[in-house]
Every structure is written in structure tokens, then in C-alpha cells.
């Protein structure tokens, strides 16, 4: 599962197959690379330049499908997609079952603004610090996600809280992501970890406040930006078509760069369905999350940090070296 992030599926959005690269007429000579990615309007912005034919290829056609988190998880062992957006925690967990995943690029990295992974309460709430939440209930979108694992690690290290789901300092309750704000507003939960679009809405309303920005806490403690999701494939697929996967990486990275350089255009285009505002996409990239489409040394450190934290919290028994699971031809930052 994935951070805040993989863990951030938005209900009510259609799950449909998208032919990415619609601006170019496919030819018989083109190879298809299938890509399963998280349902989220922001991800459509990341892929905008490919879908519009701005980023093209004479070699491959990318055929993408937006999926909710459960479908992404179910697709991992079936190998139905050539490339799959997956949780960082999925790599060692899959390895335990004998399934090797190879990282092509980072997919969800904390935004430089550090506004993701907040612990939210109502503005008039009596809770002023994280210590005040001892014995209280926290609503969460996905208890097993990488994003939540990062949050728990920050609460353990920075605030010295017992984050165990059994007999810990707080009662964690999993609630469908779209219902989290309502649960907080009605008092069903005392605090909540919100997905990005909800956090953006809550911050803008002025009706809620944050007790801890855990992404900032992780940066302070470990010197890295959290990485919740990565794009992965399988060794045998890479061995069979290495040049096609190199081209996939190039196109994805260039599409990201187009979005970075043209956030207003991309934001306006993906806001047409009414699910998000045009301003949200730019805020998402700068403050909440970022889709690198590449791998940095800091990303490797982040992956090893969360795996080591998961070992400490009893989620994993051991963890791999990040360099051992990243493809040698990955785009590097």
C-alpha cells in the first residue's frame, strides 16, 4: 500500500483504460507498455503531456489504466501490467512471497512545502499537542499503507508515542478517504490523517488545524523527503524488452517536466471534470507531493529509512538495500 499518498485513492472517479499518447497515431511497429497507476486527478496532470501527444515516441505506445489502491495491490502478483505504481513497502513484502519487483522511478515524494501527512483536528478542538491525543481516536485512510507507516514513524521518533495498533497510545480507525473530513467534523474521530485533496480543502477552509506535519518531522529527523510510491516492473519483463522500458522512462520523465514547466495549463486542463480546482495541481506538486519520474540518492535513503522503521515497528523482519532493487537504467536525479 502507499503513502498519503498510495494511499490516496479518490472515490467516485472512473476506473477506465486510457490510451496515453492520443496525439500520435499508433503504428504496427510500436510496442505497447501497459501502465497501472493510482486514480487521482493529480496523476492525470503528470501524464498530461503524454496523453496530449506533446511527449511522443516512435518506438512505444503507453497504455495506462487508473486504478484504486485495492486493484493496484491485486494486480501486483498477476503481472498484468508492464509497469505498476506501487507502494515502497510492497517491495520487501512481495519479496517475502518470492515476487521480485524492480524500481523504475519514484512516483510519490513529499512536496518541498511539507504540507502532506498532517495530523488534523477541528479548529475548536481542545487538543493542542500530539500528547493530547493519547487515548483518543485517529481516523486514517489506509492503516497498512506506506504513507501511514511514515506517519507512525514520525510520531514514534519525534513525539515518543506508542504507535502500535494494539494497546498503543491512540486508537487508529480506518475510514474510506472521502469520509474522513465528515468523520472529523461530526466527532466520530478526534483527529484524522487526510489525503492531499482533503488537506488542501481543510487548509483553505480555516475550520481545521494541524498538530503535526509529519513529513516535515521526517525531514528534520532523517534529512530526507518521504517516498511512498514507486513505479515498478518485473525482472523478466525488463530482460525481454529493455529498450522499450528505457523509452517508457524517458517519456514519463519528460511528461513530468512539462507539468512542472506548465502547471497553469495542466491544472486548468485536469480541472475541467470538476473534481479539483486548477490551483490544486500546482499546490500538489509544490507543497503536498511530487511525482519525480526519476530516482535520486535521497530517494534510496528514504526507502531504506522506512524499511528500517518498519523493522523497528515489527512490520518487517528484514529489509533489502535500495540500490539492489532499482533498475540500472533508471533516470537518475
Give your account of this protein's structure:
Strand 7 (137-140), helix 5 (146-159) and strand 8 (171-174) form a beta-alpha-beta unit. The chain is α/β, with parallel strands linked by helices. The chain is built from 13 helices and twelve strands. The chain has helices spanning 41-46, 48-51, 69-78, 90-96, 146-159, 180-186, 196-205, 214-222, 235-240, 242-261, 263-270, 278-288, 297-312, and strands spanning 17-20, 31-38, 60-67, 83-87, 102-110, 118-122, 137-140, 171-174, 191-193, 208-213, 227-233, 289-290.
Considering the chains and any ligands shown, give keywords for the structure.
single chain, 333 residues, alpha/beta, seven-stranded mixed β-sheet, five-stranded mixed β-sheet, 13 helices, 12 strands, 20% strand, globular, disordered N terminus
One letter per element, helices H and strands E, the order comes to EEHHEHEHEEEHEHEHEHEHHHHEH
Query: What would the principal axes of the Cα set say about the shape?
Result: globular
Main sheet overview? 7 strands, mixed
Overall pLDDT metric: 90
Structural class designation: alpha/beta
Distance between the termini: 25 Å
Oligomer: single chain
Number of helices: 13
Helix content: 25-40%
Trace the largest sheet across and list its strands. 1-3-2-4-11-5-12
Contiguous low-pLDDT stretches (5 residues minimum) are: 1-19, 21-27
Task: Give me the count of strands.
Answer: 12
The portion of residues forming beta strands comes to 15-25%
> From the alpha-carbon coordinates, what is the Rg to the nearest angstrom?
19 Å
